[in-house]
Amino acid sequence: MISRPLAIFSILLVFLVQAAPAATPHLAAVISLEKALTGEKTATVDAGGGVSLELTAVDGIWRQNLAILAAGRQLKKLAGGRFIACARVEASPATYWAISEYTGGAHCCGQFFFLAQAAPGQKVRYLGKTTGYNGGPRDFPGSFVERQGQLYFEGFDDRFDYFHTSHAGSLLVNVPLFYYHLSPTALTVDNLPFKGVYLKEAAAVSREIQQQANDRHRKPKAILRPGFGPGFENLVFTDNLGQLLVKRTIYYLYARQDRRAWDSLKQGVAHFYGSTAWVPQLEQEIKQTLQARPY
Length: 295
Prior knowledge:
- By secondary structure, the protein is of the alpha+beta class.
- The protein has helices at 4-19, 195-214, 240-254, 258-272, 279-291, and strands at 26-32, 42-48, 51-59, 63-70, 73-80, 82-91, 94-102, 110-117, 124-129, 144-147, 150-156, 177-183, 186-189, 224-225, 236-237.
- It is 27% helix and 33% strand.
- A five-stranded antiparallel sheet has the order 1-6-7-8-9, with no helix packed on it.
- Helix 2 (195-214) packs antiparallel against helix 3 (240-254) and helix 3 runs antiparallel to helix 4.
- The termini are far apart.
């Protein structure tokens, strides 16, 4: 029979173990892949933890294949543009690997592929990839974020690029920040823990809106005007202030403050433009754009 003091101690020990925070994630290594194929058709790079990467040149430096091996078995084969780097993150007992790729193209795309090992000795699994965003992939230091004891990867959402403007004139490129939750079994979109980030960004945009308004000499008739061709989808923003109103709306939506988002858009257009024309259509289009994939 277990004594009462020992039983109490055992219960307390279990509680302390369960309550203990997860180990702080550590960026153990960042390995460049850009020069691995210099003068070679194939190359193998050791990514640590029993993971190796086999690169093959397909067409110069901009078309490569990448085979991911774990403990000698092929885990995944990727056909890509140019693979840039591999990061290994230790989040005891789990280990994660992230591989960055630049897909090429004038306005595209940085994306990332992820692997995970739940604990030493267990199999490494392929988790999936992020959605591409404008420009080359960002550097790994600073991309991994810890929130409430969980590991996240920070990227960008680029679905509003070309939203009623050209790419060159857009204020919505790579807006907003986008967060992926990493676990040993899955890579999932989870922006909810970052509500404060979006509200802070919305406040900053509000200040930009006011500055734009102060610099104006006249009030335009509407937020949109005729642009690239016939139809609503080809109308363009009359000025940057209109883009900023939509930008703030997007941040509020990501913060899950939907009522505030739509009210601020309607009130902003009514205040800064001669009419509220196009507001219902913009609201519907923003909703449809967000419904295309999780946010």
